[in-house]
Amino acid sequence: MEAKELKQLASGRWKSIVTSLAPQLGLAIERLPHHVSCPVHGGVDGFRLFKDFDETGGSVCNTCGIQNDGYATLMWVNGWDFKTTHRAIHDMLLGDRANQYRPPVAPPQVVKKEVEVNVQSIRDSLNHVWKHSIPLSSSEARPARMYLANRGIRQIDYRKIDSNMIRFAPLLEYYEEGKLLNKYPAIVTMVCDSDGRPSTVHRTYITDSGTKAPIPSPKKMMRHCADNLFGAMRIAVQGNSKVLAVTEGIETALAVMGVFNVPVWAAGNAYLLENFVPPQGVDVVIYADKDRPSRQHPDGHGLSAAKLLLKRLWKEGIKASIKLPGNEIPQGMKSVDWLDVVNGNVPQAPAKKTAAR
Predict the structure, then answer these.
(1) How many other CB atoms are there within 10 angstroms of residue 258's CB atom?
(2) pLDDT tens digit string along 159-183?
(3) Cross-strand bridge partners of residue 184
(4) Which of 89, 133, 246, 298 is the residue whose CA sits 20 to 30 A from 19?
(5) Are residues 77 and 25 in contact, defined by beta-carbon separation less than 8 angstroms?
């Protein structure tokens, strides 16, 4: 049976399939759709299953990226290739236990009015955050500047930061599982889609004294209704520069911008970096994170994503290169990024320019 047909047969049954084939996702299934620790790299609450998981099998990790369907979820969490995954699902559905399964139930039809209300609710939330934000250069934004300085980001020319893209919210609501826990200051950054349209907001919750807020998830992306978030967080004013650097994280981007004096945008994570769409007419320099190898990413997720982006840009005729920290990952750390290099948190080593064209 072809994969397309098997996916149709699996629709409405993914909970049962994944429970059997990937028991390490049991807690995520039990707590669906709430966040839990990532079954691949750990952490606190960066992973969750899609609300329509039983129909699609999809999942997302803030670090590892999006797995769009049950095939992708099983391949990712088990380290399987496509052939192994297809065979396991086929045997699960059409083997000796086939009679345990009922014909797939069509997902309920969503009323268009409810969708429109939800989209408007998302837009209202995004506008609420942005309306109550101020430039980082404002005197009231001192907690944000203290936070960045405490993170080792001291060489910032705020004139080169786009105040329409990264700002400061003096007091912003923090929700956990739909419940308002408290309010904290926050650095808020606009995230764009591949066409450059503002699509959602990334929040970094901090304290008045410039430290990370004492909450489970101090860095969060707001809900969005965009088709994609591949346009990055455009925190630097590009000006007349023909070179644009891109990183995963915001703080890494600010560090690179301060030290190497190039405009830098932040993709958000490895998955968004892999799918980054740059503006026309620029050469792209990818300042990649150096992550520990995993079953799915033998080169480390950061470098794997950078290589995939590089390959795509070359095919599109865009000049691009990768810069990777030459430092070894110290014991007790899961990765090294350019902020670590700038801060001297790792033994000094020359940067590796892995590829250029």
Answers:
(1) 18
(2) 889 999 999 999 999 988 778 999 9
(3) 172
(4) 298
(5) yes
